Amino acid sequence: MAIEVTGGIIVNERGTVVTYRQKCERCGYVYDYNKTTIVPAYSTRSARNFTCPECGNYQEVSLTHYNPTRQQGSHRGQQGQ
């Protein structure tokens, strides 16, 4: 299982408990303090969004817990969509 982050970088991961730092995807600025949250199994958690102090970009933060060995998009009834 793995955690994917948008708007941050993972510092530590212990099951569904994730410690991360907020990161601006426009300019690359990374906050110098950690945040910790729980990401429900096979789900997405919206975390604390922020405005970058360097470039003013409003950055959304989300963390997704997924199984990289699980096939995606192979559900019946989704053909041709």
Task: Please describe what this structure looks like.
The protein is mostly beta strands and 81 residues long. It has one domain (2-66). The protein is built from no helices and 8 strands. It has strands spanning 2-6, 8-14, 17-22, 35-38, 44-46, 50-51, 58-59, 62-66. A 3-stranded antiparallel β-sheet has the order 1-8-5, with no helix packed on it. A 3-stranded antiparallel β-sheet has the order 2-3-4, with no helix packed on it. β6 and β7 (58-59) form a beta hairpin. It is elongated and about 35 Å long.
**Approximate shape:** elongated
Order of strands, widest sheet: 1-8-5
- Which class of secondary structure composition applies to the elements? mainly beta
N/C terminus separation: 27 Å
Counted by DSSP, the helix tally is 0
Rg from C-alpha positions?
15 Å
How would you sum up the major sheet?
3 strands, antiparallel
Per DSSP E runs of 2 or more residues, the count of β-strands stands at: 8
Q: Can you give keywords for this protein?
A:
single chain; mainly beta; 3-stranded antiparallel beta sheet; 8 strands; 0% helix; elongated; disordered C terminus
Walk me through the topology.
Layout: E1 2-6, E2 8-14, E3 17-22, E4 35-38, E5 44-46, E6 50-51, E7 58-59, E8 62-66
Antiparallel strand pairs: 1-8, 2-3, 3-4, 5-8, 6-7
